[in-house]
What we know:
The protein is an alpha/beta fold. The protein is 39% helix and 15% strand. It contains ten helices and eight strands. An eight-stranded parallel β-barrel has the order 1-2-3-4-5-6-7-8, surrounded by four helices. Strand 3, helix 3 and strand 4 form a beta-alpha-beta unit. Helix 1 runs parallel beside helix 2, helix 5 packs across helix 7 and helix 7 runs parallel beside helix 8. The mean pLDDT is 96. The site of 2-phosphoglycolic acid has 13 residues, from strand 8.
Amino acid sequence: MKTYIVANWKMYLNAEESFKTAEHIKANLTKRDNLELIVCPNALAFNGVRDILKDTVSYGAQNVAWTPLGAYTGAISALLFYQDGARYALVGHSERRYIFGEDNEAVRKKMNACIDTGLIPILCIGETHDDKEEEKQEYRIKKQLMKALEGLDLQGIVPLVAYEPVWAISNFGIGQPCDPEYANQMHAIIKKELTQYTDAAIPVLYGGSVDNNNIASYVARENINGVLVGSASTNGHVLLDLLDKGAQC
Ligand code: PGA
């Protein structure tokens, strides 16, 4: 299985900064068959970044609305992102769940919208700090998987799953790094759980304070098929170094 590196630029970069980072990537990117880079710019920068990087990388939406078109002020649907060149979409990111109040039902609608549109959802799951303190991490991820996947017709699409312990996410969690072996064990539990919902081999990525110094400690583990990177991915030099190190594992 190839290694996936998702660069989630969140709302860190404005359009001009996004284009600059894209230009840097374009000038220095080494294309590798065993590695897929998925860039998720903000919606305003999406087309500009795509026009710079063209088909050298894949593109993901950071968030999608589940209704394709219509009177939905401020929304951008899975369909609109798909038509503009996105192949992936983040669904259920913890910042959407815990800052913007998206519940499992909203996550499910977004999963459906992605699948119906042909976008590959990157389903984000992970326990909070309180869950972990109460030793409810397995309960939380299993529930999130069940709510997102039970009875879902994947229509031949193989989603990605990103395990992102909320407490390990930089500038949002408590900034506590996640022990790679703990992550690896959680991935094993997730992979086993996923067999309940599909026969497909679903890649499971790790996310939470990944950077160019620690990426190898995650992707070298047997159950970790890539990483979802936030703040470190916004710096072109760091992102390229991350790709180099990811490709070596
Ligand atoms: P981080 O974010 O790499 O800045 O911790 C990861 C994520 O939330 O996707």
